[in-house]
Amino acid sequence: CKEVATPHLRQMAFVRVHSPFFPSYGVATSLQTEWGVRFCPLKVPTHQPSWPLKRAPAGVAAAWVNVDVGTQDLESFTSWLRQEGFPAQAVELERINGCKIGCVATFDIQAGEDALRIPENYTVTCVDVAKHPVVSRIAAGRPDLIGLSFWLMYEKWLGRKSLWHPYINTFPSTTLSPLTWKEEELEALLKGTSLLVEAKQRIGALEEEFDDIMETFKGNLKEVPPEIFNVEDFKRAFSVVLSRAIYLPTAELFSLVPIGDALNFSGESGLLFDYSMAEQAIVLRTDRKYNKGEQVYVSYGQNRPNSDLMISYGLVDENNPNDSVEIEVGLAGNDPLKSLKKQILFEANFEELQAFPLYIDRFPIQLLSYMRLARLQDPALFARIVLDKDIIIDQANEYEVLTLILSECHNKLTNFDGSIDDEISLLKSKKNSPKEEIAAKLRLCEKKIWSNTMNSIRKRLAPIRGIPTKSGAFKDSNSDIKEMFDKVEQAASAPRKFLSSLMKSKE
C-alpha cells in the first residue's frame, strides 16, 4: 500500500449536473508519485450539499449484466429500430457468452472514429418528458432523473400501446441497487460498509421527493393515479433510469439512449458519451482500434468506488482500481491552537473536517500530514509541516498519528460481521441470492481496503524506536513489534479517547 501526494488548486472546474440527486461538491485531482501519476478523488467540499446524494460523472452508461432479455424481446427491439429508420451503427447488439447483452464491432473501427452516432430524436430526455401529455405536469420543475422515472412508469403501464414499448421491454423491472431494498435487508447485508448510511439517506430523499409530488396533486388523483404511480414502483423505476441514463455534458442533461445503454462497463475503458451540436446526435468516439467482432466497452467514469457503482448500477467491480473508502478527520474541538491550524489548512485547500480516500494499494500522504498538524502542540514546529510532502516531525508525534489511524481502521473492521475469509467462503456458496452475492462482494472489497491500510500503517510504525511493548520495557521496535501491534489493537479504549474528537465517523 503506497502513500501518494496530491497538489491542490482552489479554482477547479466542476461538472455541473442539474439534479439535486447528484450535486457537484467534489473534485478529482492527480496524485503524483515516484511511479507516475494516478488520478484519485481527494474531495475538497466547497459547500454542504442540501441533498445527500453524489453527482454522476459525465458519460456513464448502464450495463445489461443483470438484465434477462429474451431472444424474442431482443429481436422485436432491433426490428423496431429498423422500422423507425434507425441508422446503421459501427456496433451491433450481441449475446456475450450466450448470456448477457453487449455491443460488438461490425467492422474494424479505428481510433478516433465513431462507434455510435445516434440522432437525438431516437433518445428520451427531459425535453420529451416536458412534452408528455401526462407526465409533463408531474415532472415540471423536477430533476431530469425524476422526470424520466415518471415517464418510464407511465409508458411501462401503457404496455404495447406505448410507442416506446419495444425499447422499454428490454429494461429490467428493477436493479440490484440498494435503493430498492427493504430496511432489514440494508441492515443485514450492508452492515459495516460505507454504503449503509448513504443508501438510507438516498432512499429517504427519494421518498420525500415522491411525497412532495403526491402532496402537490393530492386534490386531483386523476393527475397521479395510484395504480400507475406509487412510491415502491417509483423507487424501482428510478433505479432502472439511474442505471441506464447517460449524462451528456455538452447538453447538460440525462438521456435514455437505445443501443447506447447496451454497452457494458470496463474499468480499463476510457470511452464516454457526449452530445454533438453539429450532428444533433449522441456520439461515442473510440480511443483505440477495435477489431471486427470485438466487444466495445464504455467507462463508468473516473474515480468511482464500488459503493457508488452498487447504488447507481447494482454492480460491484472486484477489480476496480478506484475502489475506495473514506476516513474523515478533524481538529480537536478543545485544541488551543485550533484557529492557527485552521488557517494553515485553509491556505492548503483543506477543511477543518476533511475526508481522505483509502485504496486497496495506496492512500494520500496528506492524510498523514494533516494528522501530524492536528496532533502537534508546539507552534514552533508548524513551519515543518508541508501538507503535500511526507515529512516526519518527530517520533512521538508520528507514533500518535499512526496509532490513531491504525485504531480507526481496526474499529471500522470491527463494525463488520465476520472476516475476509468468511466473505470469501460465502462467495463460493451456490445458495446466495443476487442481493447476498453483491453485498458480500462489497463487504469483501471494503474489508480488504481497511486491512491493507492497517498493514501499511504497521510497516510505517515498525522502524520507530522506543515503542512500549507488552513487557512494559522500551525496546527496539523491530524486536518486539508484533506484541506492540497486538497491544495497540486490543486496547481500543485509549485511542478512542483521541478519536472521540479527532475522527468523525460517518456512522
Shape: globular
Largest sheet: 3 strands, antiparallel
Q: Biggest sheet, strands in spatial order?
A: 6-10-9
- What's the number of extended β-strand segments? 15
Percent in helix: 25-40%
Number of helices: 16
Spans of 5+ residues with little confidence (pLDDT < 50)? 5-67, 472-507
Question: What would you note in describing this structure?
Answer:
With 507 residues, the chain is α+β, with helices and mostly antiparallel strands. It is 39% helix and 13% strand. It is globular.
Task: Supply the key terms.
single chain; 507 residues; alpha+beta; 3-stranded antiparallel beta sheet; two-stranded parallel ribbon; 15 strands; 13% strand
Topology:
Layout: E1 2-4, E2 29-33, E3 36-40, H1 71-83, E4 91-96, E5 100-105, E6 114-119, H2 126-131, H3 135-139, H4 144-158, H5 165-168, H6 183-189, H7 195-216, H8 231-244, E7 246-248, E8 253-255, E9 273-276, E10 281-285, H9 306-313, E11 324-330, H10 338-347, E12 353-359, E13 362-364, H11 365-375, H12 395-414, H13 420-428, H14 434-461, E14 467-468, E15 474-475, H15 477-490, H16 493-502
Parallel strand pairs: 1-13
Antiparallel strand pairs: 2-3, 4-5, 6-10, 7-8, 9-10, 11-12, 14-15
Helix pairs in contact: 4-8, 11-12, 12-14, 12-16, 13-14
Give a short synopsis of this structure.
The chain is of the alpha+beta class and 507 residues long. Helix content is 39%, strand content 13%.
